[in-house]
Inverse folding.
């Protein structure tokens, strides 16, 4: 039997109640922002992304007797973060391509999670291919248009130097092939693509055609990216909804953010 | 007739569908972060909150041929932002009182909006009193436990110097009385309190007992604050749900954030 369609006021009331009761679980997909969280490192001739830093303004002391607070600095692309179309040259002319311009209903949406953790454990350059996506669809049904697709690799469990995994020829970490991203964007019409690694592209993504295919193809089509996600092993393959709300940075190309997932509970 | 209770998986699927179709509207309660947005100004002997600043790292040029991005700096309490219990001395020992420690299910919840815009238009020091709250409840029913309560003043429509509204004796802007906050926290058990002004307290809130009663009482009881909210005139008095997800700043006392509201549509 199909579920009855609720009116929107009842839906929102029931959703708030289900979150309060725990029958919808809220899962934090975000890493803690601190000075130690790694940021992408580019060849030295390029401009670099700043790590997170914070400076105490007062702490219930002579600088502010009743309050504590900090000033902070970081890059738009530091820590768990959102990539807007304007981040990439292919998306520079996309309408509403900055984080302050994206329609806010784009920030809440259904999510499909493709588990590549076994492959990524064996091979640090593991590729998400069209075959893996088509196999996933045999078990879970077609990826719905306008969904987020997240590539689970358990890379978020790595710490320190193992996270960027730099070698003499650059970073090594898993990511999608150009054909996989084309399938997701052109044929499935996804809203965006997210990873546990420092970028939506593989560490060696510069060697594909086009280089950095996830960035190039996603943003050229006006789609979004999420990076440095955490806790993807706590999401079901389908049925969760994520909320990913970038800061409203004027002409921002991306934003650190708190990503949460609403996950159906045991009653489902 | 009461609505049928849906299972959580159906609820999430219908919610995602309702947002996609527009029958649930997503409203942005956030101001744009730019260099011009005012921050609170304290007496000069105290530490000060930084304005938002951004610096270009590259813009599809020699500093990064295919990408554009910025480094940014600001205060935890710059722009539309969240106050955690640890922000105030009364909340310094509250368990899980920093933004990285708050359980993430606290970031999605129902909201009541008390319209004080007519009063605030007449009187820049307009006070939200227990009488106004009790009157509101006569029309809209009791404020449910664990709700957000937002004080609408239309102050968000002010620009430039009119926003902080500084005079020789300090800032003048509307806010709640100590008794109003005690009623909301102690008797109604609200989750948090939000305003359109630069703080949860009135501009002249230092003259109450206790000084800055919203900060003191809310945070001392482990509750949250939202400030510099926008578009509160687009919310119904009851029935909307807000999503307010602070950045996961390690030991952060607050955070700039994107606040969105899910608002029942015309079918309701
Ligand atoms: Mn990025
Ligand atoms: Mn604050």
């Amino acid at each position: 039997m199909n579920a009855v369609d609720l009116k929107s006021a009842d839906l929102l009331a029931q959703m708030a109640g289900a979150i309060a009761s725990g029958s919808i679980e809220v899962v934090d997909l975000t890493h803690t922002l601190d000075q130690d969280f790694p940021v992408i490192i580019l060849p030295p001739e390029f401009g670099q992304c700043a790590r997170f830093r914070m400076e105490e303004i007062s702490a219930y002391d002579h600088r502010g007797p009743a309050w504590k607070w900090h000033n902070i600095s970081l890059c738009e692309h530091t820590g768990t973060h959102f990539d807007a179309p304007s981040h990439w040259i292919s998306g520079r002319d996309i309408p509403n391509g900055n984080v302050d311009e994206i329609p806010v209903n784009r920030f809440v949406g259904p999510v499909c999670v493709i588990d590549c953790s076994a492959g990524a454990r064996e091979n640090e350059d593991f590729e998400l291919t069209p075959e893996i996506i088509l196999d996933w669809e045999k078990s879970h049904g077609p990826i719905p248009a306008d969904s987020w697709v997240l590539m689970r690799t358990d890379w978020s469990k790595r710490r320190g130097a193992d996270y960027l995994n730099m070698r003499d020829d650059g970073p090594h970490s898993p990511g999608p092939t150009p054909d996989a991203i084309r399938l997701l964007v052109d044929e499935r019409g996804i809203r965006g693509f997210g990873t546990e690694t420092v970028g939506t592209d593989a560490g060696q993504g510069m060697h594909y055609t086009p280089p950095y295919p996830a960035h190039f193809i996603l943003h050229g089509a006006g789609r979004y990216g999420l990076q440095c996600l955490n806790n993807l092993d706590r999401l079901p393959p389908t049925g969760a909804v994520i909320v990913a709300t970038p800061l409203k940075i004027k002409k921002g190309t991306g934003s650190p953010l708190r990503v949460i997932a609403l996950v159906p509970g045991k009653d489902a």
Observations:
- DSSP finds six helices and 15 strands in chain A.
- The longest helix of chain A spans residues 8-21.
